[in-house]
Amino acid sequence: MQINVTNRQRLEFAALGFLAEMRKQWARLHPADPCPIKNLSDYPENERSALMAGVQKAIQYAGADTDQAFAYLACTSGKKRWRARPNVFPSFCAL
User: Within 10 A of 15 (CB to CB), how many other CB atoms are there?
Assistant: First the structure.
């Protein structure tokens, strides 16, 4: 039996997981404070859409097809910082 799942449902599921992890981390770091991170359904529709678009972009950036762009960004933006600490300079960057 094949389950029929839409891309929107997958994205909602990913956003739910992201927010759940954010709440968990908040509770660990600030156990005495109320958590400002709401459930996905508690956000207004426009904010929910923006949040899900951000999660979608993060998923896209995490793919192997963005490795070259990541390497360029990491090597150019971090060069000065990594020169000070060459032991943490990414191996794919040339000093």
Answer: 19
- Predicted pLDDT of residue 30: 97
Residue-wise burial string across 48-66, b where 16 or more C-beta atoms lie within 10 A, e elsewhere? beebbeebeeeeeeeeeee
Q: Residues of the chain whose pLDDT is less than 70? A: 77-95
Residue 47 has a pLDDT of 93
Per-residue model confidence (pLDDT) at position 44: 95
Half-sphere exposure of 32 (CA within 13 A, CB side): 0
Give the whole-angstrom CA distance, residue 6 versus residue 12.
10
Question: What's the CA gap between 53 and 42, in Å, rounded?
Answer: 17
| CA–CA separation, 15 and 25 (whole Å) | 15
Distance CA 11, CA 4 (A): 14
Spatial distance between the Cα atoms of 68 and 76, rounded to a whole number of angstroms = 12
